[in-house]
Amino acid sequence: MAEPIRRPDQISPRSSPRDRGSRSPACPRPDSTGTLKTTISLGKNPSVKHTGPFYCLKDIPEQSEITGSTNLLHHYGLEHSYNKFCGKKVKEELSAFLPHLPGNIDIPGVQDNSSLRLLIEKPPIIGKELTQLSGLSLAGFRLHPGPLPEQYRMLHQLPSKKKKHKKHKKEGEKTNALSEAQSKFK
Amino acid sequence: MAEKFEALEQQLELFIENTRQLGIIVSDFQPQGQNVLNQKINTMVTEMQEIEKFRPLLQDVHVPLEVFNYIDEGKNPNLYTKDCLEKALDKNENVKGKMDNLKRFKGLLMVELTKVFPNEMNMYRALKGEDRLK
């Protein structure tokens, strides 16, 4: 069945590519490598390529410089880092990484609401300007004299073995201080 | 790059030290310490302003979220680095093993196929030889 002959001026960029019989670059050709013994390509330069006598024979992919069998630590210069972190024993506690931080930082952050994850999930209010507090605002920080209750006193102290010995000596003093604090809050 | 981290670290240490001193004043407060307390509170605000100035310099610094899990559990973040390196090495060895075994399998398969289909294997070798030359 003969197709109607089109004049060149009738073929415009706006005409459907299906009318012209060629494939639009917007519709990618599905990969038919290895499914046919020959590959037929149409268009301006039609050609027939023999893919070979073997079914499903694909081309060898290009050799890559880095593969899974390359020693990647050596390739990226990480051998020194590997020996540093994995060669010697790394202390597990956070206080080994941050020895100068006050307080007990080796406990999970969830216990005292100091977890970083919580900071990401519920970010604090930011964007406000930080200004010095006026005399009136500072009036809110006028404190009653005397020691803090026992449960708040240990927060700023560093946990150390030496202090355990001192605790035995100071037990008597603490019970007195506790009873004084309790009397002040009444 | 390292300088801005050092500068931020120093600023944070100053802030932490000021907060620690505030804690000591408050733990056993005396009325004559009120002025010092007020001073320390305003120093805290000043130091927060200084820390805020570092924010634009560190916009492009990316921290993996998984390291936060280690810190929240009270563990050394260097353990995260150690675990990453160990996992990378394990995976590397795993993949290398697979590749070596597949190469070995290919060699054995070629030998056996040549015994059963000698003509086809010659054709195959000729084809592969041409492809390698391209």
TrEMBL record, chain A:
It comes from the Eukaryota. Residues 32-43, 176-186 have a biased composition (Polar residues). GO terms for biological process: positive regulation of transcription by RNA polymerase II. It is found in: Nucleus. GO terms for molecular function: transcription coregulator activity. Residues 1-43, 158-186 are annotated as: Disordered. GO terms for cellular component: mediator complex. Residues 159-169 have a biased composition (Basic residues). InterPro entries: Mediator_Med19_met (IPR019403). Keywords: Activator, Nucleus, Transcription, Transcription regulation. Belongs to the Mediator complex subunit 19 family. PANTHER family: LUNG CANCER METASTASIS-RELATED LCMR1 PROTEIN, MEDIATOR OF RNA POLYMERASE II TRANSCRIPTION SUBUNIT 19. Component of the Mediator complex, a coactivator involved in the regulated transcription of nearly all RNA polymerase II-dependent genes. Mediator functions as a bridge to convey information from gene-specific regulatory proteins to the basal RNA polymerase II transcription machinery. Mediator is recruited to promoters by direct interactions with regulatory proteins and serves as a scaffold for the assembly of a functional preinitiation complex with RNA polymerase II and the general transcription factors. Component of the Mediator complex. This is Mediator of RNA polymerase II transcription subunit 19. The gene is MED19.
TrEMBL record, chain B:
The keyword ATP-binding does not apply. Pfam families: Med10. Keywords: Activator, Nucleus, Transcription, Transcription regulation. The keyword Transcription applies. Component of the Mediator complex. Belongs to the Mediator complex subunit 10 family. This is Mediator of RNA polymerase II transcription subunit 10. It comes from Lottia gigantea. The gene is MED10.
